[in-house]
Task: structure prediction
Amino acid sequence: MPSSPFSFTSLIGQDKAVKMLTASVYQKKMSHAYLFRGPDGVGKKRTAFAFAAFINCHARQDNTACGSCPSCLKFRSGNHPDLTVIEPDGAFIKISQVRELIKTLAYPPYEAGYRIVLMTEVQAMRREAANSLLKTLEEPPENTVLILTADTAGKILPTIISRCQTIPFFSLPYDQVSKKLVIEHDLEREEALTLAAVAEGSLGLAEELLEKKLLSFRRTLVETLMHSTQEQPESVAAIMELAEASAKYKENLPELLDLLQIWLRDLLFVANGLPERIISKDLLPLLSKAGRRWDKKQLTRKLSLIDQARKQLFRNCNRTLVCEVLFFGLL
Result:
């Protein structure tokens, strides 16, 4: 059985959603519109693709698409004529995109039993675009299934929600996320566990952190802070170099600050006799040494410095300067 983005076997931690979707097909009770809603990075889009393939598969096997019939092969190649994907154009889904979709839906499916429309991040849909979609959601064309995805934080018009069957998605178990990271990215177990916990069960966010190399950069930063003092000229140069490198992360800089904050909190957990609550498992060898250097009062102050830096970044202060002041304060 192939494990591809178009197979339910590629998913982890969303068994309830998969069971609801497969049952709706087998029992011939498919909704004309679904809303997949849950945290970012937990498999909503991947599930939508797998569901689309499953609906039109010619030879379903073990509650998933076969992966080898003509329909599945076209889904896997990205060339299925009856799959339409609409994603935000910039920051929003715009009314022009919805109007183009409505024109497309005026025609029957080209070759499959059902036309599938996947519209991602509908919390980013402009109000006029959402209103334009309402009639289609209420009276969809025959043999058409619309799948909308959205996170839990964004606002969606109640009129959109009321016209869809909501399928809830949840944060993934940390152990399942870490196992998938170990298998697919050849990570050490401790690093995978740290990524899973930092991402709070979001596989997508964990993979983004890995791609951006934020975790490895955080380790370099932590090691430099632990072995540096302001009295050492070489330390001053190293800190300024790291501040410049940190600033280059731009929109991901807040995530780097989050990682530093988690590390400092881990040090406080150790100081308070709560090692079981540690998240930075990849830094375990460094925790005891850091604990001998800084006491609880110092650690608490350092946490407040990170909060100050985050506020300064929000006010669009110079990123390099903010990082320099913060890192010197963390020594």
User: Anything to note?
Assistant: The longest helix spans residues 253-271. The domain at 8-168 is CATH 3.40.50.300 (Rossmann fold). The first strand starts at residue 33 and ends at 37.
